[in-house]
Amino acid sequence: MNCSAEKASRKWAYGAFGRTAAAMVTVAVGLLLPGVYCEPALAAKASRSTPWGDLFGIHPPKPRAKVHRAAVPLPRPRPADAPSAEELAKEAAQETAKAAKETTKEGKPTEQATPQPPPPSACRLALTEAIAIAPSIPDIRGAGGCGGEDLVRLEAIVLPDKRQVSVKPAAILRCAMASALADWIRTDIAPLAVRLGSTISDLDNFDSFECRGRNRIVGARLSEHGRANALDVRALKLSNGRSISLTDRSVPREVREAVLHTACARFSTVLGPGSDWYHEDHIHLDLMERRNNYRICQWDVWDPLPQTAPLLPAERPEEAPPREVAAKPDAAKPDAAKSAVGKSSAAPADEKSDAATSKPEPKPTTKKRRQNRRS
Hints:
Strands 1, 2, 5, 6, 7, 8, 9, 10, 11 and 12 form a ten-stranded mixed sheet that branches. 32% of the residues lie in helices and 15% in strands. The longest helix has 35 residues, at 15-49. The protein is built from seven helices and twelve strands. With 375 residues, it is α+β, with helices and mostly antiparallel strands. The protein has helices spanning 8-11, 15-49, 85-101, 122-126, 175-195, 253-266, 333-357, and strands at residues 132-133, 136-137, 140-141, 147-148, 151-158, 164-174, 200-207, 230-238, 243-245, 269-271, 283-286, 296-298. The radius of gyration is 60 Å and the shape is elongated. Helix 5 (175-195) runs antiparallel to helix 6.
């Protein structure tokens, strides 16, 4: 292409004005085209960046649909021969029982909606009301392993002659511990009370179930009291009003020793005075299971304390005979002096006679030592 000035009139036939107008049209078209293509993109971008722009009523609201009211049907009146609520409940219970008896195709019974409680243990079946008044209580599951299963609240022990020995207060124990305690009272303690001329009426319960460590020490190993497997006994009360404290030294030693031997034969742990200072005023009994059936029986039956003499002597009765006054020791001194003088006067005569009759003893011969003379 030849763009020289000589041939410029062939390309731009309208002269200088035409050339200028054509240039301006070209520039205007170039400026308008980007705006036409950019406006839809900017509008779309603005709508994406602000999706909630039309939330607050920028556009007119849409008309709501008309509400159609429907007629609600009323229940039919109850017929006179309709069954009552009790009859319906009985029919439902019968249907549930029939469904429980039915078996599935595999021959297994269908699962019941409500779980059945576990059957009573052998201990619970043996501990009847003829032996002890001990109703069952729910299982206890506390922190740190406290509690247990098959628990009872021992309220009284029934003796063979139908008399009851009250446990005051009632003790929460495992069934095995309650059964062992009932056998001990019925077999050993009741005959002992009869030998003392009365019958046992009460058992002084010092402590039974308590979630704590041994000897109430914080952080110690869990006590058997925390497992409802121990009982602390302080005294036995008789029907005649007498109270036998098991740690009282004034109680006859034979009685305390009899209680000691029977308790150690039935319980795996017996702690009393002499074991530690925590058990100086009561007796601890439990059924702790140890390796090789190891048992602990630590209870020292102390002798009675000696009786102290009164501070003042008793008054002398008026009808007592007069007291005999003993001779003073000074009255015998003159006689002793006289006898001593007589002995001293008689002594020289005796010595003379002895000297006359006795011969002088020969002196032992001694060798004379030569003295070294110096020249």
